[in-house]
Structures are given as C-alpha cells and as structure tokens.
Design brief:
With about 300 residues, this protein is mostly helical. Among the domains are: about 45 residues, no CATH class; about 80 residues, Cyclin A, domain 1. It is built from eleven helices and four strands, in the order E-E-E-E-H-H-H-H-H-H-H-H-H-H-H. The chain has a four-stranded antiparallel sheet, with no helix packed on it. Strand 1 and strand 2 form a beta hairpin. It binds a DNA duplex (17 and 17 nucleotides) through helix 11.
Length: about 300
DNA sequence: ACGATTATTGCGTTCTT
DNA sequence: AAGAAAACAATAATCGT
C-alpha cells in the first residue's frame, strides 16, 4: 500500500448515468459516462459529451405549472435570471426622447444598477457566477455542468468559504469540482489556463471546498483519458474501444492503484498499439499523455504482468 | 552500416502524508 | 521528514532501411 492509494481505489462500474434509448447496434442500454454517451453492451459511442439538459430542467421549478414570460430562470444568474434593464435614447415605441427625458432616464438607470446588487454578498455572487459561465464556455463544458459549478459556488458562499479567498479562485474551484464530480478529466491546470488567478489559489480553494462541502469526487478513472489520447493521436475507434476495455479491466482488478490515471491509460493504449503494430512511437504517446516514456513503459509492463497480456 | 526506436538502470527530484 | 512515484540521463540493444 502506498501513500497514493487515493487514486483509483473506489471505481464503481455503475457510476455512469443510464439514459433513455437503446443502442442502434445491439439494443443495449445507453449511458453517459465521463463525457460521452455509449452503449453498455457493445461500447458503441453515440455522443462525445453527455446530453445537455439545459432547458427546461435547468430551470428552477418556479412556475409550478403557471404560465410565465421572460427568460428562463437559471443557476448561472446571480438573481436566477430575474433582471431588467433601462434602455437608452428611445422609448418603448422606438421614438427619440428629449434631452431632459434622457437625463432623467440616465439617473434612473444608475440607481437601478445600484439597486440590482442588494448586498456585497449578492454582488460577489454575480461576479462569481458570470466568471463560472465564462470559464465554462472557454472549457466547452455542458451547460448542465456549469449549473452544477454555480450551485457549488452558492454553497461555498453560504458556508462562508469566500472570506479570505478571492471570488475568482472560488469560482475556478467550483468549475473544477463540477468537472471532478462528473468524472471528467480536466485538471486544475486546465481550469487555471482560463482563470484569472494562479493555480495555487485554485488548489487552495478547491481543497477547502472539498473538505467543507464534502464533494462527491471519485478517483480519476483511467478509461476516461483514453478517448482524448486516441483522438489526439488520430487513432481509430476500434483501437480506442479496446484500450478503454483494457483500462476498465485494470481498474476493476485494482491494477495501477496509486499511479497516475493518465499513465495507466497510456499504458493500456501502448499495449493495443504494439499488438496491432500501429505506427505510433512511445514518445508520441508520452507527448499527448503528458507523462514520460519510462512511466508508460512501467505501466505497460505492469499491466501485462498483472493482467496476463 | 546507420539512424531511429526501445530497453535497462541508476539517481536526483517531486509529490503526498 | 520519509517514502513512493515520476522524470531524467547515460548506455545498451533492436529494428528497419
């Protein structure tokens, strides 16, 4: 047992969410798992990202069956989407207004803008949520995941976790937490690349959030890394599928516990590549995986040894 | 034979507890 | 501060042309 057993120790096969529909190939059940929708029986990949339940499920059930007008309520707005603006030079019918009227409206607009932020906390919330949206778009995360990040931010603020930390750091941590909880492969570095704060601040905020909020984060699952590695190397789907299967078997049998998940994924891919005599060098693999050649060799040999390959 | 790739091994470094 | 893992560097062994 090592100090890094935290990696990969509790992988659960039924982690993915089962969704409606059946596989066109074999009529098997479909489920979304680590950023893609695939058949549970034959492994056929239907979508490369989870279904986006943006509307109407992202709306808070505010209407209770009543009719409602206006934009849908959403987690991503600090006031859940209830906002109004005061226009500029024209009235409701589009007519130009007099200079006096415009000055009146200007004052009104200014006061209205101030009134929108009822308190400091509400202002922080607004900034945080808009930052989450910005980073979420930059990382091309599904809207449902962005909503989850926003919920985390709200919880963090309610738990008074923001004092002493920057809004941006906590917003970034919320994004990362949502990714981790969904079993995605984004790293803190990935989030930091689109954030306006340093990595250390995000790490700190995330650790606090994880501890205080008790996030449902599982250890990273090597199989989740395989699709990205394969697409970056331009490998065929059948190769990807076999590498994924191998990675799943490895986690199921506890091989590679305590090792970097990417390394395990790369090791699985290395085995498939070698078996097929595919023209991809170890350094190519190491390049896209972001680990050294030695690590890939070590995982590959370990997998061969302990999985009889 | 030659260059490229892979293997092997020792060792300072980095990360986690 | 200690222990494990990953990275690095030097060197040998294969492989393809």
């Amino acid at each position: 047992m090592t100090t890094r057993d935290i990696y990969d120790s509790g992988f659960d096969e039924d982690d993915g969410r089962t969704i409606q529909g059946t596989c066109p190939d074999c009529e098997g059940r479909l489920r979304t798992d680590s950023g893609e929708t695939a058949c549970t029986v034959c492994g056929l990949v239907i979508e490369d990202r989870p279904f986006d339940f943006e509307e109407p499920s992202a709306e808070i059930s505010d209407t209770l069956g009543r009719n409602r007008t206006g934009a849908p309520l959403t987690e991503r707005r600090h006031d859940r989407g209830l906002s109004s603006e005061i226009g500029f030079g024209t009235d409701a019918k589009g007519n130009t207004l007099s200079a006096k009227k415009r000055r009146q409206l200007g004052r009104l607009r200014r006061e209205h803008g101030r009134a929108r932020w009822g308190s400091k906390a509400e202002r922080n919330l607004g900034i945080g949520l808009s930052e989450i949206s910005r980073m979420g778009s930059a990382l091309e995360l599904p809207k449902s995941l962005q909503d989850e990040a926003c919920r985390h931010f709200r919880q963090a603020q309610d738990a008074d976790l923001l004092t002493g930390r920057s809004i941006e750091a906590m917003a970034s941590a919320s994004v990362y937490a949502a990714c981790r909880e969904d079993g995605r492969i984004e790293t803190i570095e990935d989030v930091a690349a689109v954030a306006r704060v340093e990595t250390v601040a995000i790490t700190n905020a995330y650790n606090v959030m994880n501890r205080e909020l008790g996030l449902a984060v599982r250890p990273r699952n090597p199989a989740a890394f395989v699709p990205r590695l394969c697409s970056e190397l331009g490998l065929e789907l059948c190769v990807e599928r076999r590498a994924r299967a191998l990675a799943k078997r490895a986690t199921a049998e506890g091989v590679g516990i305590g090792c970097q998940p990417v390394g395990v994924a790369a090791g699985c891919l290395a085995i498939v590549i070698e078996d097929d005599g595919i023209a991809v060098t170890q350094s190519d693999l190491a390049g896209v995986a972001g680990v050294s050649i030695e690590t890939i060799r070590a995982r590959r040999d370990q997998l061969r040894e302990e999985l009889d390959r």
